[in-house]
What we know:
Elements: H1 3-27, E1 35-45, E2 59-63, E3 66-68, E4 72-75, E5 83-90, H2 101-109, E6 116-123, E7 126-134, H3 137-142, H4 157-166, E8 174-181, H5 200-212, E9 214-220, H6 231-248, E10 252-253, H7 264-275, E11 277-284, E12 291-294, E13 296-299, E14 304-307, E15 311-314
Parallel strand pairs: 5-6, 5-8, 8-9, 9-10
Antiparallel strand pairs: 1-11, 1-14, 2-3, 2-13, 4-11, 6-7, 12-15
Helix pairs in contact: 4-5, 5-6
Amino acid sequence: MDYPTLRWKALLFLIVVATMVLAREAKAPAPPEGVAVRMVVTASGVGDGDLPEVSMRDVQVSQRRQTLKVTGWTPARGNQAGLNMFLLIDDASDRSLGSQLNDLRDFINAQAPTTLVGVGYMRNATVQIAQDFTNDHAAAANAVRIPLGNTGAFGSPYLSAIDMMNRWPKHPSRRVIVMVTDGIDRARGGPRSRNLSTMPDVTRASDLAQRTGTLIYTLFSPGVGARRRNLWEATNGQNGIARLSDESGAESFFLGVQAPVSFRPFLDRIQAALNNQYLLEFPAIPSGRAGLQSISVGTELSGVELISADGVWVPATK
């Protein structure tokens, strides 16, 4: 076979292969369009320096190792400062918590006039509301009382938090829970696994917090009863509330398993976090059905750490 014939056969082969590739690409489904979602992100300073202003170009968002476009980055200030905050106190807390109540009242009274504050007590897996959402901060502060110091028949701070989130009125404002508890789940009797990952109520509360965009800050305060004196139970309770706070995009505060001298330093840090939050918007990649999608939010800006929930709720593709 002569050289020109081989050349034409090779050219024909390349044409056939190119045609097959183009046909396959034409039949391949187009990648799903992003679904607009919103998250609350907290900017925290690293080190002792002042926290610099974070701009939209400083923020990186990724999902499934794919970088997403940031479409909105609004400081939660001024007209965007809307905040609904509920203080939840565990009625199974030791009555020595009474020495901390003035710190909690001062924290409530220091909120911005536009912030709606509610107060409730966690007992029997529900929340007994002492003061519903109000911008009368003095009334909310007056609703803070000494806990009953009784475990109740069915005590779980995680089930109570779920009850509160399910009853939360629809509103575009930021959603924040400040929860005072030892984190011990007294509602579950019988053999208990010593593996934190098997605590189903923590998982359920965390998933609902991420789905609804609720940030849950937790303050450890010792409870009452035999489980409080069990070091493993106390430590596991702390692990539970720490996990809930971390996965929801907030923080947990405690000093070992003893009561802190004062809540004030912790409450000051929560207030600093509330004052440095942003509303982040981006198109998330949907899957075949609605659900939580893991999201990573970060920045290369020096001296800044961005704190956010582990995931965001993304509707299913149509």
